[in-house]
């Protein structure tokens, strides 16, 4: 059976349904370039250990290079008879260099240490791509913040009117978690950069092969300390799946807001035509589908993480075939993010903000009540009293159907004698945001400083 890596002890081949169940080439083919790269490194350590002559090494590397070229241009692919990418590539090597030389490569390695190594290599490259895509979203948010330095919007808690904030402050509040996600990817990479190669099936190699040499050759920081752990643990994959799910959740929070903001009731933003869709029946519709797909796919990425954790749970040491289920959820999460990140970047970069309307709505719902209370505290009034007094101002304005700034001087001093007309200096949304000038606050100086910090951080990545 060409492409089979086992069979010596079997009198017959697998049943058709067994082979169909076992097959993984339809997804693990993504590992093929890494498999060949690692095979070249393995050939070099076999040579160093005296298990492959210099001529054989040259022939082997040449065969692997030709195989890599054929994989890259699609001339070589998995056959019906191939169980997995590893078997398919051994068949491809033997087709190119013959069974005598091609049959020497597998010494001292197992698919168990191979697949764990290749999955780590694939994942490290994927995490870098995702980090770069996410950085584009951060840059789009920062550019929008910088383009609207003075814009004021209603700040909300519980989705109820809370306090006015700068639009830039709000947008950067979405950039911060994304920067932390990028940092999480970099941190996860540290733990992923450990090579299982040389662990064999579980117990390590007896052939004098050097795991440190192969680790270095493949760009890993170090070889694994324990061959049983190296072939059976997948916490590196679960950690990446968590960060991917966290990214999706963070972008889903942003998406939810874009969806709300683009309703006529809010009217904060208009979406660019290029990043929205229409309706097949309602001619007036312009729908926020990018944001909705982002929100929806967050559920899918949470599922990818949850499924992977459930697969890992309760597996005894060491390798079990259950582990073949580790790759698809992680591949899926990355494929979804690679579609989503450019679209979310485009959506954010082209949002047209209606800043006049946002500023007009900013005082609605008595959002300056906290400013009254804090102004009184600055006049020496205990906050407990100030809170009560500001609350009474809200009650009075609400009953008259007017804003806090429309209460006349007499009414204010009537509510509390310390409420002199000077309080009016904080009864504007601009006065309110400008007063919140401590580190991390919403004052324009603070938001400008934040933009500098975020830009410097993203330039460093
Ligand atoms: N295709 C397997 C995986 O993805 C690797 C092969 C290990 N198979 C085995 N019977 N030991 O995990």
Automatic annotation (TrEMBL):
Reaction equation(s) it catalyzes: 2-(N(omega)-L-arginino)succinate = fumarate + L-arginine
Q: Which InterPro entries does the UniProt entry name for this protein? A: Arg_succ_lyase_C, Argininosuccinate_lyase, Fumarase/histidase_N, Fumarate_lyase_CS, Fumarate_lyase_fam, Fumarate_lyase_N, L-Aspartase-like
Q: What is its EC number?
A: 4.3.2.1
GO CC annotations on file = cytosol
According to its UniProt record, in which pathway does this protein act? Amino-acid biosynthesis; L-arginine biosynthesis; L-arginine from L-ornithine and carbamoyl phosphate: step 3/3
Q: Where is the Argininosuccinate lyase C-terminal domain?
A: 366-434
Sorted alphabetically, which Gene3D superfamilies does this protein's record hold? Fumarase/aspartase (C-terminal domain) (1.10.40.30), Fumarase/aspartase (Central domain) (1.20.200.10), Fumarase/aspartase (N-terminal domain) (1.10.275.10)
Q: Does the record's keyword annotation contain Electron transport? A: no
Q: Which UniProt keywords apply?
A: Amino-acid biosynthesis, Arginine biosynthesis, Cytoplasm, Lyase
NCBIfam families, per the entry: argH
- Membership in a protein family: Belongs to the lyase 1 family. Argininosuccinate lyase subfamily.
Name the record gives this protein: Argininosuccinate lyase
Originating species = Gordonia alkanivorans CGMCC 6845
């Amino acid at each position: 059976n060409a492409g089979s890596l086992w069979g010596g002890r079997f009198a017959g081949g697998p049943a058709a349904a067994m082979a169909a169940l076992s097959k993984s080439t339809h997804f693990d083919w993504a590992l093929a370039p890494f498999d060949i790269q690692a095979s070249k490194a393995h050939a070099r350590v076999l040579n160093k250990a005296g298990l492959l002559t210099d001529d054989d090494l040259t022939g082997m590397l040449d065969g692997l290079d030709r195989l890599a070229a054929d994989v890259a241009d699609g001339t070589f692919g998995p056959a019906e008879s191939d169980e997995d990418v590893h078997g398919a590539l051994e068949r491809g090597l033997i087709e190119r260099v013959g069974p005598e030389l091609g049959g020497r490569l597998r010494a001292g390695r197992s698919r168990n240490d191979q697949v764990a190594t290749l999955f780590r290599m694939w994942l490290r490259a994927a995490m870098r791509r995702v980090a770069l895509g996410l950085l584009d979203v951060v840059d789009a948010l920062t550019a929008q913040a910088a383009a609207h330095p003075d814009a004021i919007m209603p700040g909300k808690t519980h989705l109820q009117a809370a306090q006015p904030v700068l639009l830039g402050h709000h947008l950067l509040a979405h950039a911060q978690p994304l920067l932390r996600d990028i940092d999480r990817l970099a941190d996860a990479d540290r733990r992923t950069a450990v090579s299982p190669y040389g662990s064999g099936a579980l117990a390590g190699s007896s052939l004098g092969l050097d795991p440190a040499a192969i680790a270095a050759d493949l760009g890993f920081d170090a070889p694994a300390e324990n061959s049983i752990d190296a072939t059976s643990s997948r916490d590196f994959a679960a950690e990446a799946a968590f960060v991917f799910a966290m990214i999706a959740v963070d972008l889903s929070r942003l998406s939810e807001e874009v969806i709300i903001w683009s309703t006529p009731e809010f009217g904060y933003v208009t979406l660019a035509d290029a990043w929205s869709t229409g309706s097949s029946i309602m001619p007036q519709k312009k729908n926020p589908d990018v944001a909705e797909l982002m929100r929806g796919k967050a559920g899918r990425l949470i599922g990818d993480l949850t499924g992977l954790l459930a697969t890992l749970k309760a597996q005894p040491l060491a390798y079990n075939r259950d582990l073949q289920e580790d790759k698809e959820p992680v591949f899926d999460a990355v494929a979804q993010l690679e579609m989503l990140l450019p679209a979310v970047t485009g959506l954010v970069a082209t949002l047209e903000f209606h800043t006049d309307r946002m500023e007009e709505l900013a005082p609605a719902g008595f959002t300056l009540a906290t400013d009254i209370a804090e102004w009184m505290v600055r006049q020496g009034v205990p906050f407990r009293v100030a809170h009560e007094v500001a609350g009474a101002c809200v009650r009075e304005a609400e009953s008259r159907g007017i804003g806090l700034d429309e209460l006349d001087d007499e009414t204010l001093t009537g509510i509390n004698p310390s409420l002199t007309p000077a309080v009016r200096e904080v009864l504007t949304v601009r006065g309110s945001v400008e007063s919140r000038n401590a580190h991390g606050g919403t004052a324009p100086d603070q938001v400008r400083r934040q933009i500098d910090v975020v830009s410097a951080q993203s330039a460093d990545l």
